[in-house]
Write a structure and sequence with these properties.
Pfam families: DNA_pol3_delta2 (PF13177). This is DNA polymerase III subunit delta. It comes from Mesoplasma corruscae. The protein is α/β, with parallel strands linked by helices. It folds into two domains: about 160 residues, Rossmann fold; about 60 residues, no CATH class. Helices cover about 50% and strands about 10% of the residues. It is built from twelve helices and five strands. It has a five-stranded parallel beta sheet, with helices on both faces. Helix 5 links the parallel strand 3 and strand 4. It is globular. The two termini are about 35 Å apart. The relative contact order is 0.14.
């Protein structure tokens, strides 16, 4: 299913209070999976449940990672432990402290759940507290334990050749504070190099329109694209680029 279809369908379910309690988002283009996940999580808190960031107070808080009833675990590299899952269970078993009356957690690269972590999560998926929603992300849903899959609604994010400019995660990053921009390296490093180059080139065209006076940002961006294409270490290129972005944004 295409991103726009997924977001429209899920926004409708949220508005009608019929949203699935647990879903798995999967897709070979992991950048698009992350984009859909970020938009979906934000929609739960958006004052009008808009599929795009409408810059309401709730959306601004979400993009600043400033909503208590939202939590994301998993970095794409290390195994996800039972301790991390127990943090979710402890935190989300409590009554919501925010006015939204919704609690949302995301498990990035859910295939990295260790067996004891998956077993701990299982019962929480079976009997979630009221208004608690889980979003599990993966490139391949078959890599997630069958017992977990069977308790979630599966949604496949199609690999779209044309990047939706409104949902370019590199552009979205620029609206965060400097600390959160640096923390974006976790999600960005999960994107395949070829996909990241395409995203960066598309983002460059967007920022020229959105930030027409920031020529320093243009230079930093072009240097990053060149570095990505010719550097041996993608991760070092990303780290250096994000530091440079925070200095010119």
């Amino acid at each position: 299913m295409k991103k726009i279809e997924i977001k429209n369908n899920l926004a409708k379910l949220i508005k009608e209070n019929r949203m699935f309690h647990s879903i798995i988002l999967s897709g070979k283009n992991y950048a698009e999976v992350i984009t859909v996940s970020n938009d979906l999580a934000r929609m739960f808190f958006c004052e009008k449940t808009n599929i795009d960031n409408d810059k309401c107070n709730a959306c601004k808080r979400f993009l600043s990672n400033n909503i208590i009833d939202y939590l994301k675990i998993g970095d794409g590299n290390l195994p996800i432990t039972k301790v991390q899952v127990q943090e979710i269970i402890s935190r989300f078993s409590l009554t919501s402290v925010e006015k939204f009356n919704k609690k949302v957690y995301v498990i990035d690269c859910a295939e990295n759940l260790k067996n004891d972590a998956a077993n701990s999560l299982l019962k929480f998926l079976e009997e979630p507290p009221i208004n608690t929603f889980s979003i599990l992300l993966t490139k391949n849903k078959t890599d997630i334990l069958p017992t977990i899959r069977s308790r979630c609604n599966l949604i496949n994010v199609e690999n779209e050749k044309i990047i939706d400019c409104k949902n370019n995660i590199l552009v979205d990053m620029l609206y965060k504070n400097k600390e959160d921009i640096l923390l974006s390296n976790i999600d960005i490093k999960k994107i395949e190099k070829s996909e990241l180059i395409k995203l960066s080139e598309d983002a460059y065209e967007i920022i020229k329109e959105k930030f027409p006076l920031n020529t320093n940002l243009f230079e930093v961006w072009l240097e990053f694209i060149l570095d990505l294409k010719f550097s041996i270490s993608k991760n070092i290129s990303i780290d250096n680029w994000l530091i440079n972005v925070t200095e010119v944004i």
